Amino acid sequence: FSYREKKFISKSSPLFLYIIIFGYIIQAASIFLWFGEPTDLNCTLRIWLTPIGYIISYGSFLAKTFRIYRLFTDDSMRVYPIADSELLAFVFVLLVIQVIVLVIWTILDPIQQVIEIDVT
């Protein structure tokens, strides 16, 4: 955070770097849901947090890569600036698609806790 004014950091889209880290934090937070007594909410959040964190981090990475791709594949050598808001819209669309899939899955087949006790 203290080096954000450095040229190599400012040119690497720090907003997307923060978003990538946020996605990884969400994924890592899902690990803690595996501890303790399972509940319906706990089991549902296990399924929701991992793909949402993945889409946030990987979608941001794809957006950054797309920006670089556009810079280096243009034959006219003109610079077409791509605003962060356009790339954020791409990440948001991916996130909405993921949430729609998770909502449909949760509605059609709700996750319920099952506790099995082995008495042998």
Structure in words:
It is a single chain. By secondary structure, the protein is mainly α. Helices cover 65% and strands 0% of the residues. The chain is built from 4 helices and no strands. Helix 2 (14-29) packs antiparallel against helix 3. It is elongated and about 70 Å long. The protein starts with 6 loop residues before the first helix and ends in a 12-residue tail after the last helix. The model has no long low-confidence stretch (mean pLDDT 86).
What characteristics describe this protein?
single chain, 4 helices, 120 residues, elongated
Short characterization:
With 120 residues, this protein is an all-alpha fold.
Write the layout of secondary structure elements.
Elements: H1 7-10, H2 14-29, H3 40-72, H4 84-108
Helix pairs in contact: 2-3, 3-4
- DSSP helix fraction: 55-70%
Series of H and E elements: HHHH
Number of strands: 0
Q: Please compute the radius of gyration using only Cα atoms.
A: 20 Å
Uncertain regions spanning at least 5 consecutive residues: none
Tell me which oligomeric state these chains represent.
single chain
Largest sheet: none
Beta-strand portion reads under 5%
Secondary structure category: mainly alpha
Number of helices: 4
Mean residue pLDDT: 86
Distance between the termini: 55 Å
Describe the global form. elongated
